[in-house]
Amino acid sequence: MNRQSILVTREIFPEVLDKLRTHFSVEANQEDVAWSLEQICERAKGKAGLLTSGGERIDAGLLEQCPDLKIVANTAVGFNNFDLDAMTACGVLGTNAPDVLTETTADFGFALLMATARRIGESEQYIRAGKWSRGRIDFFAGSDVHGSTLGILGMGRIGQAIAKRGAHGFGMKVLYNNRSQLESHLEQACSASFVSKEKLLREADHLVLVLPYSAQAHHCIGEAELSLMKPTANLINIARGGVVDDAALAHALREKKIAAAGLDVFEGEPSVHPDLLAVPNIVLTPHIASATIRTRKAMAHLAADNLIGYLVQGKPLTPLNPQVLQRCSGND
Ligand code: 8YV
Fold first, then answer.
1. From residue 237, how far is each of 132, 209, 249 by CA, in Å?
2. What is the C-alpha R_g of the chain?
3. Number of structural domains, the chain?
4. Backbone dihedral region for residue 130 (phi beyond 0: left; psi -120 to 50: alpha; all else: beta)
5. Same domain for 18 and 46?
6. Residue nearest to atom 1 of ligand 1 (CA)
């Protein structure tokens, strides 16, 4: 029997590749070097499925060149690399990797919040630079986390998991803003109150961004929004680069319009705006919020299971555009 062919665009765990190889003929990038879009396009020709890491743009241009493509499985919960309308129009299913990373990512959001509030990055660099002699009374004094006001912009699964940590672990007052207000049992579970975006900006001591990227969310934190925040406030971004105007943020940090920032995601990553690198009151990490071995394995297995589920059994686990499935079964 002719096996269907799939392409794995980025390095992945060998056990996941082995699982895929029991069902498919697999071409895989196992080098620690990302393929360019042109290389992906060339290699995707004739493939029925792609397993992507989350940064590869899947748009009409690629789809046009790959008429055999049936599914693209992202190893990420975010899927702003997909032009989902174009995929649906071409009958290509998109899947993401939700749930398995929720708690791990929330842990990291909280770690970044604490590192930012307590100036852990700056003080570590100070020691490494051999500068430590003695400390004044306000030596690396930061801001309290316990008992403060936690603001969350984007109250999906990860936002709610961060809210629970804040409310139940640190006695924080939790405010949130989201496209829509949560049902009251969900609000109660994380002791969170829905407020306007303006009130959130004005009242948060620690503002965590967890909203999905979309054209509407582009630069939803820019100069105007930063100017509403408290001068003592901290901003944490674990959402997506582009949600924050990085140049405006660097300016606000330099001018001490806000106290500090913790960033895991950047506009144009892996490049980082040079002005952000020049300010001290910032903690920077390279898009690792979901990166524990257990969770990254679970994400990769879920993406692989989506490919197997759809191409072999006709049942993907986490489809993003189920219209494609209905269309397929309608055609049978
Ligand atoms: C990374 C994420 O994109 O799931 C997401 O949306 O941002 C992260 O988990 C993922 O690690 C890419 O492989």
1. 30, 5, 11
2. 22
3. 2
4. left
5. yes
6. 76
73/205 same-domain check: no
Residue with tokens 């743009």: 57
Say whether both 146 and 263 belong to one domain: yes
For this structure, is 11 an active site residue? no
Of 9, 96, 20, nearest to 312 by C-alpha is: 20
What is the mean predicted confidence (pLDDT) over 149-175? 98
pTM: 0.95
Total H helices, total E strands in the chain: 15, 12
**What does the angle CA 152 – CA 216 – CA 178 come to, to the nearest 5 degrees?**
25
C-alpha dist (Å) from residue 9 to 21, 72, 136:
15, 11, 52
Rounded percentage of the chain residues whose pLDDT exceeds 70:
98
**Do both 159 and 67 map to the same domain?**
no
Are 47 and 74 within one domain?
yes
**Protein residue closest via CA to atom 10 of ligand 1:** 76
Closest CA to 176 of 145, 225, 211, 143: 211
Locate the ligand 1 atom nearest the alpha carbon of residue 79 and give its number.
Answer: 6
Kindly report, residue by residue over 236-254, the tens digit of the pLDDT.
Answer: 999 999 999 999 999 999 9
Whether 146 is a known active-site residue: answer: no
One-letter amino acid for residue 48 of the chain: A
Task: Mark whether 133 and 276 lie in a shared domain.
Answer: yes
Identify the domain containing residue 167 by its residue range: 102-284
Token code pair at residue 326: 């209905």
Residue 240 appears among annotated catalytic residues? yes
Q: Are residues 70 and 177 in the same domain?
A: no
**CATH number of 246's domain:** 3.40.50.720
